[in-house]
C-alpha cells in the first residue's frame, strides 16, 4: 500500500478509527510489535483519541522530537494499514448519497434520482464511500486469543455450558429468539445444494446480525420506516 493512496483518502475517519481499534484490541498484541512500530501505533492512537488534525499532528515532532523520528502522517497511515492487514474497498457514490455506483448502477455517470454527475470534470468521483470487508475483520478476531474466546459465547449460551445459558420460556438474549432456534434445526443451504450439517452447529460458527437506521420514504414525513 502506497502512502499516496491514503493521502487521497486522508479524510476517511471511520477507516482510521477501525484500523486503530483493530490493532490495539483485536489483531496485533503490543508485545509482538517492534519498538518503532509500537511508537507509530501509539502516535496514531493519540491522534485519533485527541481528535488532532493532520496539520497539528505534523507539528508534534518539533515539540516532542523522537529518535528515530516518526514518519509523516501518510506514511503512518500506510504502516498502520499494513500491520492491520485491512484495506478498504472504495466505491463511488452519488454526491447526495442517493445511490452507490455498483450493481445496476455500476456504469452510470449521472444519478438517476437527483441528476448530479458522478465525476468531476477531471474524472475524479465527486464522492466516495469506503467499505471495510467483513471477512478480514472476522479473521482478525479469530487471530486474537481473548477475542476468539469471547466469540465462543454463542456456543456456550446455546448448549448450556455457560452460567447464563438459555432457559426454556425465558428470552434474555438474541440467541433465545425463534429465528435462531429454527435455523439450528435446518441444514445449511449454499446456492441450490443442501449440506449435511445444520446452521450454527460448529462452536466456531459466527452468527451475524444486521441493524439499520430508519429512513423517510416521503419528502414530507413525521415517521420513518
Provide a descriptive summary of the structure in words.
This protein has about 220 residues and is mainly alpha-helical. It folds into three domains: about 1-90, no CATH class; about 90-130, no CATH class; about 150-200, no CATH class. About 40% of the residues lie in helices and about 10% in strands. It contains nine helices and four strands, in the order αααααββααααββ. The strands form two sheets. Strands 1-2 form a two-stranded antiparallel ribbon. The chain has a two-stranded antiparallel sheet with strand order 3-4. Strand 3 (about 185-190) and strand 4 (about 195-200) form a beta hairpin. The chain is extended and about 65 Å long.
Low-confidence stretches: 1-12
Distance between the termini: 41 Å
When the domains are counted, the total is 3
Order of helices and strands: HHHHHEEHHHHEE
Strand order of the largest sheet: 1-2
User: Helical element count?
Assistant: 9
How would you summarize what this structure contains?
39% of the residues lie in helices and 8% in strands.
How do the helices and strands line up, and which of them pair or pack?
Elements: H1 3-8, H2 13-27, H3 35-49, H4 54-63, H5 73-84, E1 89-92, E2 128-131, H6 134-143, H7 145-150, H8 153-159, H9 178-184, E3 187-190, E4 193-198
Antiparallel strand pairs: 1-2, 3-4
Helix pairs in contact: 2-3, 2-5, 3-5
Amino acid at each position: 500500500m502506497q502512502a499516496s493512496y491514503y493521502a487521497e483518502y486522508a479524510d476517511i475517519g471511520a477507516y482510521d478509527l477501525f484500523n486503530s481499534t483493530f490493532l490495539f484490541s483485536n489483531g496485533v498484541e503490543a508485545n509482538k510489535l517492534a519498538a518503532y512500530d509500537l511508537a507509530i501505533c501509539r502516535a496514531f492512537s493519540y491522534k485519533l483519541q485527541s481528535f488532532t488534525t493532520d496539520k497539528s499532528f505534523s507539528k508534534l515532532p518539533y515539540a516532542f522530537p523522537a529518535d528515530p523520528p516518526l514518519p509523516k502522517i501518510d506514511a503512518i497511515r500506510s504502516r498502520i494499514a499494513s500491520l492491520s492487514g485491512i484495506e478498504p474497498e472504495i466505491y463511488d457514490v452519488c454526491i447526495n448519497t442517493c445511490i452507490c455506483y455498483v450493481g445496476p448502477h455500476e456504469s452510470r455517470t449521472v444519478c438517476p434520482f437527483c441528476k448530479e454527475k458522478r465525476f468531476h470534470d477531471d474524472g475524479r468521483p465527486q464522492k466516495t464511500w469506503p467499505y471495510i470487508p467483513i471477512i478480514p475483520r472476522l479473521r482478525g478476531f479469530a487471530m486474537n486469543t481473548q477475542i476468539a474466546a469471547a466469540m465462543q459465547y454463542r456456543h456456550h449460551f446455546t448448549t448450556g455450558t455457560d452460567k447464563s445459558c438459555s432457559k426454556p420460556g425465558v428470552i434474555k438474549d438474541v440467541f433465545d429468539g425463534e429465528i435462531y432456534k429454527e435455523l439450528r434445526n435446518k441444514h445449511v443451504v449454499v446456492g441450490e445444494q443442501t449440506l449435511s450439517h445444520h446452521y450454527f452447529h460448529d462452536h466456531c460458527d459466527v452468527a451475524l446480525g444486521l441493524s439499520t437506521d430508519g429512513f423517510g420514504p416521503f419528502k414530507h414525513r413525521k415517521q420513518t420506516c
